[in-house]
Amino acid sequence: MTQVSMTVNGKAVSGDVEGRTLLSSFLRDKLGMTGTHVGCDTSQCGACVVHVDGAAVKSCTMLALEAEGASVDTIEGQAAADGSLNAIQQAFQDHHGLQCGFCTPGMVMSAAALLKENPKPSESDVREYLEGNICRCTGYHNIVKAIMAASGQDVSAIAAE
Ligand code: FES
Ligand code: FES
């Protein structure tokens, strides 16, 4: 076992991990932060997306030890301290961008990374960016709409699914 230390949602954390421990497992099993979901463990589904030093990363593709000293942001850090949702989370709620919610943490974290690099994405920009995030429930339409709404764009012309 080796000790790993990093900052998660602005708070310093550390724990003992094996060399093979994935960042997703460290977050969920060691820190109890189960908001980061694991749908496949094989880099397919995107449910485990977090930000590492500001970049969206599938946390099942990264070893915990590789995040030594990094700044990690997870879905648990997205809402304000008083529990109010951020703009992306609120848009998912307003535009019915989720059903079972399993994919939602990864979707929200991917959306946040997208809007940081492209503040006014087109519908095709959003669909292309979400290529690595799988949703089994929604058909994606309302997710795309929610993300465009979160970017401040008028989505009234986009029909609800
Ligand atoms: S759990 Fe990481 S991509 Fe599916
Ligand atoms: S809302 Fe169920 S998997 Fe996306």
Q: Care to describe what's here?
A:
- The chain is an alpha+beta fold.
- 29% of the residues lie in helices and 16% in strands.
- The longest helix has 14 residues, at 104-117.
- It is elongated.
- The mean pLDDT is 96.
- It binds FE2/S2 (inorganic) cluster (2 copies).
CATH class descriptor name of the largest domain:
Alpha Beta
The structure class reads alpha+beta
Radius of gyration: 16 Å
Distinct ligands, ions and cofactors found in the model: FE2/S2 (inorganic) cluster
CATH architecture label of the largest domain: Roll
Shape: elongated
- The percentage helix is 25-40%
* Superfamily (CATH H level) name of the largest domain: Beta-grasp domain
Largest sheet: 5 strands, mixed
Average predicted confidence as pLDDT: 96
Fold topology:
Elements (H helix, E strand, L loop, with lengths): L1 E7 L2 E7 L5 H8 L18 E4 L2 E4 L12 E3 L13 H8 L9 H14 L5 H7 L11 H10 L11
Parallel strand pairs: 1-5
Antiparallel strand pairs: 1-2, 3-4, 3-5
Helix pairs in contact: 2-5
The structure holds FE2/S2 (inorganic) cluster (FES) (2 copies).
List its traits.
161 residues, alpha+beta, Ubiquitin-like (UB roll), DNA polymerase, domain 1, 5 strands, 29% helix, binds FE2/S2 (inorganic) cluster
